[in-house]
Amino acid sequence: MDIKLLLAAISPAFIILYIFYQHDHAHNKEPLSLLVKCFFAGVLSTLVSFLFSYPLGLAGINKGVEGAFYEAFFIAAIPEELAKLIMLHLVISRSHAFDHYYDGILYAVCVSMGFAGLENILYVSQGGYSLAITRAIFSVPGHMLFAVPMGFFYSYAKFQPSKKYYFLGLCLLMPIILHGTFDFGLMATGVLSKNEDVTALLILVALLIFIIWMWRYGLKKIAHTKKINIEE
After folding, report:
1. What are 118-129's pLDDT values in tens digits?
2. What are the residues whose beta carbons fall under 8 Å from the beta carbon of 90, sequence distance 6 or more?
3. Distance CA 154, CA 105 (A)
4. What is the pTM for the complete model shown?
5. Does pLDDT of 229 surpass 80?
6. How far is it, in rounded angstroms, from Cα 134 to Cα 168?
7. Of 92, 77, 76, whose CA–CA distance to 31 is shortest?
8. CB 108 within 8 A of CB 150
9. Which domain holds residue 79?
10. Does 221 fall in a domain?
């Protein structure tokens, strides 16, 4: 893999990280050392997710729309989001730097970009520049959009301990729903388009509407954390 292709694969993740770091307007910005740990924890989460997805892949449900649904949720969304959450928790649960609601989002995005960065390298090394462009538009930002609610609800679990387990459930459930729906839309469109099924077009339109909704949902969650000061 040449250096230009490598840069094409990893640059979307670092651009997203830079944007989120610049939006950290807390009195004390998060220590870079902790953000680096989160990023490499995300890289490691790709291996952890494989430990979960491998046995699920032995079920052999790999045909048609049903196979797309199973792969989207049980091979991708559930193992990957569970692995990310485990690594996020291991790195930041006891950190004294975690003192604001936005911090949870920033840490979760760092973990997610570590995962997406390595995943992108693996895919782009096989698919070349055209795939790098496609994944820079959809897949890498997708992982960021899955991470925002994870970090948002993780912050609530920390700062509102009376509802800790309720919010911990949400910080896993919401990313799984978003991730699984996103992947299913892509996979189902691919499966049905091979048969020239008009349903593929309808699913594609629904997927585009869903992506727009995810952006609005994520931006609202980010804006909400900016209004909260836990010291008040």
Report:
1. 999 999 999 899
2. 41
3. 8
4. 0.93
5. no
6. 32
7. 92
8. yes
9. 3-22+29-226
10. yes
Q: For the chain, what is the domain count?
A: 1
The verdict on residue 232 lying in a domain is no
DSSP secondary structure string, 37-94? Answer: HHHHHHHHHHHHHHHHHHHHHTT---SHHHHHHHIIIIIIIHHHHHHHHHHHHHHHTT
Q: Give mean pLDDT, residues 55-63.
A: 76
Q: Report yes or no on 75 lying in a domain.
A: yes
Per-residue pLDDT at 197 exceeds 90: no
Residues 6+ apart with CB under 8 A from 159: 101, 230
Asked if 66 and 191 touch (Cβ cutoff 8 Å), the reply is: no
Q: Is the distance from CB of 150 to CB of 174 less than 8 angstroms?
A: yes
Q: What is the pLDDT of residues 67-115, one digit of tens each?
A: 899 999 999 999 999 999 999 999 999 999 998 999 999 999 999 999 9
Structure tokens at 47: 């291996």
Map residue 151 onto helix, strand or coil: helix
